[in-house]
């Protein structure tokens, strides 16, 4: 009877430890998935910000070119 009882306790302890390990594994998996999603969102936000910065730089360059063109026209108009 003692052997049966001790065997049952041992099996229960192993099952409990096994379940706890699975729970920790699931928590780790969830943490990794959340980190991957957050990283993906951060990368997408970075790409969007970079694209906007490039668009702004292009617009600023066009405006600077127009300003130079106007300055040249004014300078050549004054000479005539």
From TrEMBL:
Q: What is this protein called?
A: YtxH domain-containing protein
Which species is the source of this protein? Mesoflavibacter profundi
**Coiled-coil segments on the chain, per record:** 22-78
Q: Which UniProt keywords apply?
A: Coiled coil
